[in-house]
Amino acid sequence: SMLESERSAAQLVIEEWKRPAHGTQYFAALSASMGAMAVGAAIGYSSPASAAFRYDNTTEVITDNSTFGNLYLSKEARGWFAGSLSIGALLGCMLAGLCINNIGRKGTMLVSVVPLLSGWILIGLAQNLSMLVIGRILCGLCTGISSLVVPTYTTEFASKDIRGALGTGFQLFITVGILYAYIFGWAMDSWRLLTVVCGALGFVFLLMAAFLKESPHYLLSKGKEMQARQSMQYFRGKSYDIQQEMEELKKSLKDSSDVKVTLSDLSTPYILKPLLITLALMVFQQLAGVNAVIYNINIIFQFA
């Protein structure tokens, strides 16, 4: 029986050695997903805020004389306020593509907080439509950047056994952020105070992201093998043997660098077909008007 217990203990040690730790991965996914929640709050903010603006039935924007007075916005002005976030998101996606390969995944997440907090400050102190729109565009920059960098970062550090679960975190936390803005928008009368509550998520994201490890995939792609190993070991746990996974990652990066891709490759059916399906899904999602509903749900219910 003693021999059997020793074998069982040895078996447990071997299984532990083969199984990656999940705690550090869950924390990293939660920290990165706080960026998605901050983005969700920015998306959901326009609905209660637009309903709180005093309505003036003119094409001009009129402001009170008081420093922090309410704003009178026309229907057209409310539309610009709500929809301008998408302009920033469009620009943010293109900017993110450059940033993630130059300053890293973690660096890009930290940088994205700058336009987000700047946007909230502008909105909170806004005296006219221009300040509101510029603030929304800045928040949109973070939206576009986060939409690319957070899922990329999460899938790169996650182990295979929980990669799918962690990959859903971005979309989940966006909806949580929208709900967050709706709940506090319902509870508060002041759209300026709501700005502080929603903007606070940006600070939380900044603090949590500051403690993240850089993606091992990015570090190895930059030739920093030692740091990549340290990062991989951190995410997998001290007792996990990362050698096989590191070799697979090296091979994957080498294969990617060896294959030269040109625009003419887009015409091949196995690339073109999934590309068109993916683009069609995104186009029809936008044409369905889901963003217009999310941005203006308070006003929709008021008029209904």
Task: Give a nutshell description of this structure.
With 304 residues, the protein is mostly helical. It has helices at 2-18, 23-52, 75-99, 104-124, 129-157, 163-167, 169-187, 191-209, 216-221, 225-236, 243-258, 269-287, 290-303, and strands spanning 54-55, 62-63, 71-73. It contains 13 helices and three strands; from the N terminus they run ααβββααααααααααα.
Commentary on this structure:
The chain has 304 residues and is mainly alpha-helical. It is built from 13 helices and three strands. It has helices spanning 2-18, 23-52, 75-99, 104-124, 129-157, 163-167, 169-187, 191-209, 216-221, 225-236, 243-258, 269-287, 290-303; strands spanning 54-55, 62-63, 71-73. Helix 2 (23-52) runs parallel beside helix 7, helix 2 (23-52) crosses helix 13 and helix 7 (169-187) packs antiparallel against helix 8. The N and C termini lie far apart (75 Å). Its main location: membrane. GO terms for molecular function: transmembrane transporter activity.
List the SSEs and their pairings:
Blueprint: H1 2-18, H2 23-52, E1 54-55, E2 62-63, E3 71-73, H3 75-99, H4 104-124, H5 129-157, H6 163-167, H7 169-187, H8 191-209, H9 216-221, H10 225-236, H11 243-258, H12 269-287, H13 290-303
Parallel strand pairs: 1-3
Antiparallel strand pairs: 2-3
Q: Outline the biggest β-sheet.
A: 3 strands, mixed
Distance between the termini: 75 Å
Overall, the morphology is globular
Estimated share of beta-strand residues: under 5%
Mean pLDDT across all amino acids? 87
Number of strands: 3
Radius of gyration: 23 Å
- How large is the count of helical segments? 13
Backbone structural class: mainly alpha
Indicate the low-confidence ranges by residue numbers: 59-68
Estimated helix fraction: over 70%
The ordered H/E elements are HHEEEHHHHHHHHHHH
Widest β-sheet, arrangement of strands: 1-3-2
Keywords: Membrane, Transmembrane, Transmembrane helix
Main location: membrane
Protein name: Major facilitator superfamily (MFS) profile domain-containing protein
Subcellular location: Membrane
